């Protein structure tokens, strides 16, 4: 085992602090990664605060990991020392069920995937994430970061990128399709970039017009404030896809009214509280209310290659590790454009 420095929350809702953790020795099919950058996802804050479910503490968050391979196990065939690689939200699954065999490891039927942090590994030990110097991961859950992407702007793609790319591809965003992205934050700004690159006509729906210039610069064709009641009247029955990236409850009936017949509202932000839906808002136009949970490993690699081809990196603010707690407060205040990324050399 190897002792490495990390930042962890010692208890629910506690500030993160510098500590050390143990990483397992490299096994037959493992890859040891020197982490260079780790993105801060709103999911990290939800889990540190026990917002979704009771967590395992001390908790080292981070599932937007970019780094360089420093050691490989004797059975590794996909990677070599020096490769630029990434790790997202999963570090394992059964790899035997129909979903895993189809490259949909995020929907593993045998207990679900092994999450990169706040999860339990196959040996019963807790998993620890990317706010650390190094990580050891099965090669089947490592992806290659193309040379065209710098590691700092690539790190958030391992969650924010794939979380928006997967539903946009599944629901056929592309030429001739109209996509609305609800919220222009860490997820939303990548949703805009990716939907635009796929060829869709993109509209941002945000509470105000404060970020309008950014939205248009990132690839949106239109930008509307949801605080204006006329927005919902003007855009009724317009969109093929409404991609909801916010993690707070909404008046879902109002947003569903924006869909065309057979349109889909896809939720990728997960509120902590239970939400209610009036089914009458679905019936009139055979609308779909659905969700999406990241993407499998093959699709994550596809997303990275797509982003490299189209020059799509996250918009980031690079911080040192001692700024993590301040960054959490700023994320909660929507005061980031658009993803904090930790320079792990500062841990």
TrEMBL record:
- EC number(s) per UniProt? 1.1.1.2
* Signal peptide start-end: none
Which cofactor does the UniProt annotation name? Zn(2+)
**InterPro entries found in the cross-reference section:** ADH-like_C, ADH-like_N, ADH_Zn_CS, CAD-like, ER, GroES-like_sf, NAD(P)-bd_dom_sf
What does the sequence similarity comment in the record state about its family? Answer: Belongs to the zinc-containing alcohol dehydrogenase family.
Q: Which SMART domains match?
A: PKS_ER
Q: Which PROSITE patterns did the record assign?
A: ADH_ZINC
Alphabetized, the UniProt keywords read: Metal-binding, Oxidoreductase, Zinc
Q: Which reaction does it catalyse?
A: a primary alcohol + NADP(+) = an aldehyde + NADPH + H(+)
Q: What name appears for this protein in its UniProt entry?
A: alcohol dehydrogenase (NADP(+))
Q: Where is the Enoyl reductase (ER) domain?
A: 14-342
**Taxonomically, which superkingdom?**
Bacteria
Task: Look at the named UniProt entry and state the broad enzyme category this protein falls under.
Answer: oxidoreductase
- The keyword Secreted is assigned to this record: no
Q: Which residues cross the membrane?
A: none
User: Known Gene3D superfamilies for this protein?
Assistant: Medium-chain alcohol dehydrogenases, catalytic domain, NAD(P)-binding Rossmann-like Domain
Mind telling me which Pfam families this protein's record contains? ADH_N, ADH_zinc_N
């Amino acid at each position: 085992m190897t002792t490495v420095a990390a930042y962890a929350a010692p208890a629910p809702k506690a500030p993160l602090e510098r500590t050390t953790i143990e990483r397992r020795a490299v096994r037959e099919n493992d890859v040891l990664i020197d982490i260079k950058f780790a993105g801060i996802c709103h999911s990290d804050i939800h889990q540190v605060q026990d917002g979704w479910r009771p967590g395992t503490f001390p908790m080292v968050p981070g599932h937007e990991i970019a780094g360089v391979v420093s050691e490989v196990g004797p059975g590794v065939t996909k990677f070599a020392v020096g490769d630029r690689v990434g790790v997202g939200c999963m570090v394992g699954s059964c790899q035997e069920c129909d979903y895993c065999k189809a490259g949909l490891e995020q929907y593993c039927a045998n207990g679900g995937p092994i999450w990169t942090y706040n999860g339990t590994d196959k040996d019963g030990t807790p998993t620890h994430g990317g706010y650390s110097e190094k990580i050891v991961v099965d090669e089947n859950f490592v992806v290659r970061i193309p040379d065209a992407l710098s590691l700092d702007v690539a790190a958030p793609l391992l969650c924010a990128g794939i979380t928006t790319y997967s539903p946009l591809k599944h629901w056929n965003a592309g030429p001739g399709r109209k996509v609305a992205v609800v919220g222009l934050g860490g997820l939303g700004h990548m949703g805009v970039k990716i939907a635009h690159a796929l060829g869709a006509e993109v509209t941002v729906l945000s509470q105000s017009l404060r970020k309008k210039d950014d939205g248009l610069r990132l690839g949106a064709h239109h930008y509307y404030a949801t605080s204006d009641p006329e927005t919902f009247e003007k855009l009724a029955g317009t969109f093929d896809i409404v991609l909801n990236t916010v993690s707070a409850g909404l008046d879902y009936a109002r947003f569903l009214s924006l869909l065309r017949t057979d349109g889909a509202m896809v939720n990728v932000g997960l509120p902590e509280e239970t939400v209610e839906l009036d089914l009458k808002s679905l019936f009139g136009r055979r609308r779909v209310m659905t969700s999406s949970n990241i993407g499998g490993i093959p699709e994550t690699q596809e997303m990275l290659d797509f982003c490299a081809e189209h020059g799509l990196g996250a918009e980031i603010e690079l911080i040192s590790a001692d700024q993590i707690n301040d960054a959490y407060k700023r994320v909660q205040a929507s005061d980031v454009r658009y993803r904090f990324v930790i320079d792990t050399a500062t841990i």
